[in-house]
């Protein structure tokens, strides 16, 4: 418990009424000045992110690398949306830990980087709905956070029996995809349904829109006698709806809800581009207001930390990072090529693993790369 200081003793002072009013007015005028002084003091004590202040922050989770403005633990990320969770995998002792966004359901399955406007990362989503005999409509949402944007294309697989599935953009309530699942026979299993995912026990949805969040709505079809029962010899396919992502990618920004005009961001106390030799670019998406930092031409590194941008000295014959990802699907990425900062010999050799599932590897100029 906090200690309580003794109340100070005030000597009695006699005042005339006009003097008392002037005294009260003076106290009222002093209050805003005191508040402003406190705000400035708090702002002055804000810890500027740097290599030193972030030294104790984890830089990886399993085989995935993490760069500021993302982080794990208190004081390791710039904002709540970028506070990540590294969760031990309980399904198998030998399995690597899994990395999640702060929502606890969006799994990160590629490195997250703050270097040189590399703002895309791959994500995964999985959710199971247990059906009830008294309900035919089920709703869930996938909202990673206001700092994120889903990139096209999103591919979702949905298993179950006898229902219509609708995918809507959560904020506008606009439908962006749909499919129908039927089960002609009771003998179908989840494993068999997933092999083809052609509408029998499983259906796929391809979302080509750029959205900030998704709302899933499932409407069950009651067909003849095939309806949910308390006891049944049928498998779990009949009693659950299972949603899993087959491919999903997210992009991120530093949120700017104040919609700052061009040139005014640098004057704000919460300006994110902390390094010398850095600048910013603003997002043009109305539903995705924000900006990104970058190192000036001739510099490379992390613009979100103090002195994070350093002179690009051309070809570096050494790999500077220890845990570099060297595979994109079934494509090997040997040095001097690389995916993350510190893993390639020069900026020209940085590649982007846009889809490990299909082994899609690109140069930063968006040209497809062939196997190396």
TrEMBL record:
One of its GO terms (molecular function) is polysaccharide binding. It holds the Pfam family GUB_WAK_bind. Keywords: Signal. It is found in: Membrane. It is a single-pass membrane protein. Its main location: membrane. Residues 1-35 form the signal peptide. The keyword Transcription does not apply. GO terms for cellular component: membrane. The keyword Signal applies. Residues 57-96, 324-364 form the Wall-associated receptor kinase galacturonan-binding domain. This is Wall-associated receptor kinase galacturonan-binding domain-containing protein.
